[in-house]
């Protein structure tokens, strides 16, 4: 039987509906969650992502502002803006869109954000809290991956999960969150030898390698849940994942499409983090 397609768009829609209700309740208590996004430079993809974030905020009732700065902005100017936002009680979440121009240190900028307003979950304090299993703001894409797996009804505890890719923003945090859900986790990466011997053991396979169509049916155990985090452009300029969708659809029990799988979950988890940050700051 072919895989059930895991429509992230649909899951995202239902989580956003839940969030809209929660925000309406918070507003009755005088709390309006607020997100400020800082965008430096003219990268069209970044502008498009930021528009998506603003639209998402509007949909659930979060107040959002975008601070646009030109590519010549200095690191000092950016740090000054972040300090002001850290002190502004109306701003519950701060997100600096990446990548930044090369003269600005991403590390210095991300470290400057108040961890309680770090809705990306990229601040070392939040990363550390995640590692030790403390309640904290979780990074959006990894959190979205876990939510998608849960919404299939799959019990994660005791399953063998294989994660391909070890980036700081996807592979590493996804493996930690799966461990936290009591999966047995194997990490694979570009230097792994005999990849299929590992992936064939996976009940849950998360692919975040950033290499178009690298996973075919020879990699997948029949009945596995396959989550494709890859976003690549093929020769025709079309968005494709890391998984050969048509092939793997024949073997997997659940499979995410690209686009429309993990992508819509990322912004939704940002909205969830902003609401969470507002609630925590109101305490
Ligand atoms: N650029 C691409 N994805 C992201 C993200 O998740 N957060 C931020 N801040 N910038 C990005």
UniProtKB/TrEMBL annotation:
Family, per entry: Belongs to the tetrahydrofolate dehydrogenase/cyclohydrolase family.
Pathway(s) served: One-carbon metabolism; tetrahydrofolate interconversion
UniProt keywords, alphabetically: Amino-acid biosynthesis, Histidine biosynthesis, Hydrolase, Methionine biosynthesis, Multifunctional enzyme, NADP, One-carbon metabolism, Oxidoreductase, Purine biosynthesis
InterPro entries named among the record's database cross-references: Aminoacid_DH-like_N_sf, NAD(P)-bd_dom_sf, THF_DH/CycHdrlase, THF_DH/CycHdrlase_cat_dom, THF_DH/CycHdrlase_CS, THF_DH/CycHdrlase_NAD-bd_dom
Domain Tetrahydrofolate dehydrogenase/cyclohydrolase NAD(P)-binding per the UniProt entry, residue ranges: 139-281
Domain of life from the UniProt record: Bacteria
Keyword Hydrolase attached: yes
Native source species: Brevibacillus panacihumi W25
Protein name: Bifunctional protein FolD
GO terms, biological process: L-histidine biosynthetic process; methionine biosynthetic process; purine nucleotide biosynthetic process; tetrahydrofolate interconversion
Keyword NADP: yes
Gene name as annotated: folD
Pfam families, per the entry: THF_DHG_CYH (PF00763), THF_DHG_CYH_C (PF02882)
GO cellular component assignments: cytosol
Sequence positions that bind NADP(+): 165-167, 231
Function (record text): Catalyzes the oxidation of 5,10-methylenetetrahydrofolate to 5,10-methenyltetrahydrofolate and then the hydrolysis of 5,10-methenyltetrahydrofolate to 10-formyltetrahydrofolate.
Listed EC numbers: 1.5.1.5, 3.5.4.9
A Gene Ontology molecular function term of the record: methenyltetrahydrofolate cyclohydrolase activity
Catalytic reactions on record: (6R)-5,10-methylene-5,6,7,8-tetrahydrofolate + NADP(+) = (6R)-5,10-methenyltetrahydrofolate + NADPH; (6R)-5,10-methenyltetrahydrofolate + H2O = (6R)-10-formyltetrahydrofolate + H(+)
Tetrahydrofolate dehydrogenase/cyclohydrolase catalytic domain ranges (all copies): 6-120
Classification via HAMAP family: THF_DHG_CYH
Assembly behavior: Homodimer.
CDD domains xref list: NAD_bind_m-THF_DH_Cyclohyd (cd01080)
């Amino acid at each position: 039987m072919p895989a059930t397609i895991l429509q992230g768009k649909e899951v995202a829609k239902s989580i956003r509906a839940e969030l809209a209700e929660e925000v309406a309740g918070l507003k009755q208590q005088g709390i309006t969650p607020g997100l400020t996004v800082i965008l430096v430079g003219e990268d069209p993809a970044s502008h498009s992502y930021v528009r998506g974030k603003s639209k998402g905020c509007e949909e659930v009732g979060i107040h959002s502002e975008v601070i646009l700065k030109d590519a010549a902005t200095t690191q000092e100017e950016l740090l000054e803006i972040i300090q002001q936002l850290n002190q502004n009680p109306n701003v519950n979440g701060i997100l600096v869109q990446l990548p930044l121009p090369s003269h600005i240190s991403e590390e210095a900028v991300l470290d400057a954000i108040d961890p309680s307003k770090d809705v990306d979950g990229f601040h070392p304090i939040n990363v550390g809290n995640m590692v030790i299993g403390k309640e904290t703001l979780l990074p959006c894409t990894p959190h979205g991956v876990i939510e998608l797996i849960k919404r299939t009804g799959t019990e994660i505890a005791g399953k063998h999960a294989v994660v391909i890719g070890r980036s700081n923003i996807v592979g590493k945090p996804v493996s930690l969150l799966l461990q936290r859900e009591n999966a047995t986790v194997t990490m694979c990466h570009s230097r792994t030898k005999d990849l299929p011997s590992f992936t064939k053991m996976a009940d849950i396979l998360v692919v975040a390698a950033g290499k178009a169509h690298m996973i075919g049916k020879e990699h997948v155990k029949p009945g596995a849940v396959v989550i494709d985090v890859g976003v690549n452009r093929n020769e025709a300029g079309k968005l494709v994942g890391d998984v050969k969708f048509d092939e793997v659809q024949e073997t997997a029990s659940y499979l995410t499409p690209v686009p429309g799988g993990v992508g819509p979950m990322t912004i939704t988890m940002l909205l969830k983090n902003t609401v969470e940050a507002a609630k925590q700051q109101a305490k």
